[in-house]
Design a protein that fits this description.
heterotrimer, A alpha/beta, B mainly alpha, C mainly alpha, B: mainly alpha, two-stranded antiparallel sheet, two-stranded antiparallel ribbon, 4% strand, C: ABC transporter involved in vitamin B12 uptake, BtuC, 2 strands, disordered C terminus
Amino acid sequence: MLTVDDLEVRYGRLAAVRSVSLTVARGEIVCIVGPNGAGKSTTLLTIAGELAPYRGDIAVDGDRLTGLASEAVARRGVSLVPEGRRIFGTLTVEENLRLATFQRRDRAAAARDLADLRLRFPILAERYGSPAGRLSGGEQQILAVARAMATRPRLMLVDEPSLGLAPQNVDLVYALLRELRAGGMTLLIVEQNLDRVLEVADRIYVLRDGRVQLTGFVAELRGSDALEQAYFGFTRKRGNGA
Amino acid sequence: MTLILQNLIDAIALGSLYALTALGVGLLFGVMRLINFAHANFITIGAYSLIVPSTNAIATLAIGSWHWAAMTTAVVAIVMVLAVATELIVFRPLRRADPATLLVGSFALAYALQYVILLVYDGRPKAVDIGSSLTEPFLIGALRIPRLEVLTIAVTVALIVALALFLKRTRYGIQIRAAAEDFRMARLLGVSADRVIAIAFALSGLLAAAVSLLFLSRTGMVAPRMGLPLVLIAFVATVIGGMGSLVGAAVGGFTVGFVSVVLQVILPLELRQFRDGFVYLLVIAVLLWRPAGLIQVRAIKERV
Amino acid sequence: MASRRAVVIVAWAWPALSLIALLAAIVAAAALWGGSITDRVVTDALVKIVIVVGLYIFIGNSGVMSFGSIAFMAIGAYAAAWQTCCPRLKPINMSGLPDFLRLNTVDLLPAALSSVTFATVLAAIIGFPIMRLSGLAASIATFAVLAVVNVIYGNWDRVTLGTNSVVGIPRYVDMWIALGCAALAIVAAYLYQRSPSGRRLRAASQDEVAAKAAGIDVPRERLIAWTLSAAFVGLGGVLYAHNIGVITINNFYLDMTFITLAMLVIGGLRSLSGAVLGVVVLATAQELLRQVELGFTVGGIAIKSPPGVQEVVIGVAMVAILVLRPAGLTGGREFRWPLGPRDGEKGRVRSRLH
């Protein structure tokens, strides 16, 4: 349902993304992986409308998103859980969640969604009236995802969900993402941790130097040399008993 | 004793005016990192809107002669429209610029607006009488408290409470607070930048209008630069109180007004005229000690 | 061989030389064909150039928007006035002055030099703590400096006559003296921006963190620029005083700050050519608008605008530039040597003698 076609994104004269094309089908989890500086986050931010592309097209279910500002993209059902979570520390947990529902037209459904989220995340329900800045890192990540869910998006973009989190919290977050997919959500995740990616993704795109080096189903690529080659640019020698 | 109490009330009233001005300035700073020099012109134009354009030394009241409720509504409307108009015409095109450019831009706007007033009304200060009944004092025992001071304090408290409720309880209030903390994230959640900024300007205009009427009642005069001393102090207050914190701005404004009056009373006679100089030196001192202001905007502290 | 060398030197100094040549041409034209009005306008503009180039030395290189530099214009102007004006009235009116000033009159050149030195020294002292600040905090602090000077000078009646004007300052600044000082300012600014200190400051203005990591002492470099800047702004104040002959403290407050900043911004904040060009363009515009305010007839129709139009137009122009072309008319670039190879750096020409 998401198509990105020949995207090029520049910072000044520097092209961070040279030519990236990708698709995400409804209900899939697709991960973008690659080394630092490959252009993964830039791609995601451009889809979300934070950055404007130099060239290329972005569409969701046929709706053209290219060049729209971030608030317009959000209103068209694309939600970003950004790197570093960026929850509003001075607002309460409740206000963080409610804020996400303000742009929705379906008020009654939005209210129901908020109630559902409260039930689903007891951690958040406990702290509902506290300033979000008091939550721990893992709790904040849950809040960030819940907040994105509250917009009832058709596509959720997640930027580096494991960054800065303790492993048990990362487990929690990924369990949540899997649950979301089970519920029908479409997810596009940027992730540096290849192991996590192989656990949860249906398909992956490997980016390096602003281009797609490799794409394929995880089931086929798991453990293959092609994956290592694309990610690192080389493969380890396989000797006897390696 | 009575003298001290009267001075105290005067200090609180003046502090209230500065607090309101500082809130108007601090609101825009919090949301868009804009230091709006033109806020002085909002206040000035609010006052000038009461009179007929002329070169007379004693002004003829136009709106100023209406019943106080109608007059207040008219001035508030005029200044709010002016504020939103400046946003549309000047600041929206500059929206992506860095704070220094915004600063220079608002400086230029203030300069232009000041001379527009001069064009229309001429530069001499004019006497304007709208609140003369308010100079009559309340008599409480031996205390004589001018009604205007009571009104100033009451209006300030009412506006602050209203603003606090608005920011805390309403949808737009929450959006403004979110935008003030992290505008880009707010937009990623669908918050409309245009709407939030327009509301912030409108609120800023509302506060300016209130200051305009109260200040005019206090001084009885309009002059093209009448808003300037208030706004300069408001910048000082925003700095001392903590740039980005509305509570800080209000507290800072109030403190500066209060301290001004106190200094006026306690400074030896020869130094009294240099009072403002001491205030500015205080600004520099605070900036050196805490470049982000006294009240650090911490994510943990809840804001107004 | 010698002429090749000369070419290289001229090419290197071209940005500065071209500006000086341009100004000299204007002055020559005014001397030949102009009247007393053009003399006045040109002299005023040249004095402004000294000031705006002074502002540029700090603002253009450090990236910090200073709202307070005009304080040093006031300091320079009043210092010159104290030394050279009104020998008969001074002992009575300015009773607060120390005796060596009150009872003496100093010759013009030493007075000018000492006034500039006074402004420079004060700038170094004031700048020392402030230069640690960056961005908005720095701008507000500099504004506070202007305000403090304004309050002190505006109220210290026995030394400055408070808000009253100081009259009777000897008027000796003509077009040529102003041209000489403007040339001096341009040369100094150019040498500074090409110097290692100037380059370090520019690097810090692009990326303060990286500069610090590279070992650049940012407050120190800023202080150097600030002090050099104040020297020329102070000189501008001295010239202003000896050009107009009358000074009032409010001449050196918000309006002057605005107009000089406008000239710098419109011309182009980050380049020396911008500073000069901004003054030339704006001074011309101001004079034209002033004529419109005074009124003139075109084909039998009288055209006259009310006072204040000038300032409104300039304010609007400034906003327009910020929106449409924030880097100013010159876009932050210097005048380039039109001949010869160009390397990557703006305005620099590789010498053929390497």
